[in-house]
Amino acid sequence: MALKTDAVGKQWPAVTYQASRAKIAEYANAIGAENPVHFDREAALAAGFRDVVAPPMFCVVYSAPAMGPAILDPEVGMNFSAMVHGSQEFEWGEAVCSGDEITTTPRCAEIYEKDGKGFYVFESTSVNQEDAQVVRGTWTNIVRGV
Amino acid sequence: MEQGDQIPELKVTPDKYLPHRYAGASGDFNPIHIDQEFAKQVGLPGNILHGLYMMGLVARANAGLAHGDPRALKRLSVQFRGMGVPEQEITVSGTVKSVDGDRVVIDTVAEQGGNRVIRNAEAEVELGE
Questions:
Q1: CB–CB of B21 and A35 under 8 A?
Q2: Which of A1, A95, A98, B83 is 20 to 30 A removed from B128 (C-alpha atoms)?
Q3: B68:A29 CB<8 A
């Protein structure tokens, strides 16, 4: 069966997420990050940040609300029961601090078949309120038996 | 740092409720991570760790080279292979692949009980003074 590739190039609506001290601290605690710049505003200011700063991988928190509709889109048509998150890449720009408004735009970059598996590659770009890029993500989901 | 140098190992044993806390922190409530019974019904040994949580540990290990400075990690790519489970130690280790000025590229692996749960991870870190 040929893999459906109609969604390649499709973009989904941008979603804006407001970073807060509480969410940054909650995330930092969950992954065990210990640097006080994630928890204490004074420590963050002393280190040269505008406010409490997020660990780099906090990008999954502010990207998720934008990525959900892309991944779930019936036009993409992934078979979720046979899907795994195969690989992930992030490239970071400006740091994200509490109070920042981060806008993420998802796009379907590629859909292809290899060794009987379907590879669905999404890209996301996230910018802050000053339009500076904070992260670029490449999300690859693999579906068995396409 | 020079090519071939090892980064300090990061060892973490996620407790039984870690997947629930990570679900709350990240917003990913997929039941395979937080519901034992559901996970077993779909053929898993039990609830499994979020792949992106393990990627978070890999990021932490690499940021550790710059004393945890969140600006230091410039790029990280990983492949998720195998499943991580709670209540078993995870070891993140890495080897310097190349050095270009204050930028180093590190090959990183996360392993749990002899199973490489993240492999072919490549991190680019900018070292401060």
A1: no
A2: A98
A3: no
In angstroms, rounded to a whole number, what is the distance separating the alpha carbons of residues B50 and A91?
20
Range of the domain at A127: 15-144
**Could you give the strand order of the β-sheet that contains B10-12, starting from the edge strand earlier in sequence?**
A15-18, A101-114, A117-127, A133-144, A83-92, B73-80, B115-126, B103-112, B90-100, B10-12
Please list every residue in chain A whose beta carbon sits closer than 8 Å to the beta carbon of residue B71: 95
Number of domains comprising chain A:
1
Give residues with Cβ within 8 angstroms of A42, minimum separation 6: none
Size of interface A-B (CB pairs under 8 A): 95
Tell whether A84 is covered by a domain. yes
HEC letters along B105-117 = EEEEEEEECCEEE
How many angstroms separate the first and last alpha carbons of chain A?
A: 7
| Inside any domain, residue A4 | no
Domains by residue range for chain B, with CATH: 10-126 (3.10.129.10)
| Residue A101 in domain | yes
- Taking only the tens of pLDDT, chain A with its 146 residues reads 579 999 999 999 999 999 999 999 999 999 999 999 999 999 999 999 999 999 999 999 999 999 999 999 999 999 988 899 999 999 999 999 999 999 999 999 999 999 999 999 999 999 999 999 999 999 999 999 88
In a domain? residue A56? yes
CATH number at residue A47: 3.10.129.10
Q: Are strands B115-126 and B103-112 parallel, antiparallel or unpaired?
A: antiparallel
